[in-house]
Amino acid sequence: MASLVTRRLRQHPLEFGRASTYVESLELPCLEKFSEAFLRAANYYGLVEIEYKYDQRDREYKLLDANARTWGYNSIGQAAGVDFPFLLYSDQIGEPVSSIRGKPGVRWVRLLTDLPTGAIGILKSEVTGRDYIRSLIDVNEEAVFSGQDPLPGLVECALAPYLFLKRGY
């Protein structure tokens, strides 16, 4: 009923990300079509995140996994016009849910983990400082920080030393 295609542009840790730090929505109808066919074949109903990896060798997307749970950057959905939690709630209480696709070009960041990720990328010459800063200017949705509700962002800042010691940053 609802879909949003995104790509992870930065992750933590850099080599094999456990968590996205910077994500962008985009148009990729081939993945939507394949995902719908996969979910129909599995007779799946509900919220799901399906992950793919683009294989440069044969220029095809490979299915990595399907997670029947919410994901870390799900708040990008609302900014892209697809409020997944509300749609799921509406469906579960029997309200009608219209088919909807997320708009491309929406960017999400988790600043606390993206700043060190960006700094490492700059030090490794994988990105210029200018390009990194420019990417932050164009962000539509921040994972934790909000001017409307600053408390979660303040708590995350207070947790930063613990996260640094526990995870490396």
Descriptive notes:
The chain has 169 residues and is an alpha/beta fold. The protein has one domain: ATP-grasp fold, B domain (D-amino Acid Aminotransferase, Chain A, domain 1, 2-Layer Sandwich), CATH 3.30.470.20. The chain is built from six helices and eight strands, in the order βββαββααββααβα. A hairpin with a 6-residue loop joins strand 2 (6-12) and strand 3.
CATH level 3 topology: D-amino Acid Aminotransferase, Chain A, domain 1
Class computed from helices, strands and strand pairing: alpha/beta
Q: What is the helix fraction of residues, given as a range?
A: 25-40%
Series of H and E elements? EEEHEEHHEEHHEH
Q: Compute the number of helices.
A: 6
Gyration radius, in Å? 17 Å
Q: Give average pLDDT, whole number.
A: 92
Stretches with pLDDT under 50, minimum 5 residues: none
- Count of separate structural domains: 1
CATH level-4 homologous superfamily: ATP-grasp fold, B domain
CATH architecture label: 2-Layer Sandwich
Termini Cα gap:
37 Å
Strand line-up of the largest beta sheet: 2-3-7-8
What is the makeup of the main sheet? 4 strands, mixed
> Number of DSSP strands?
8
Overall 3D shape: globular
Beta content comes to: 15-25%
What is the name of the CATH class?
A: Alpha Beta
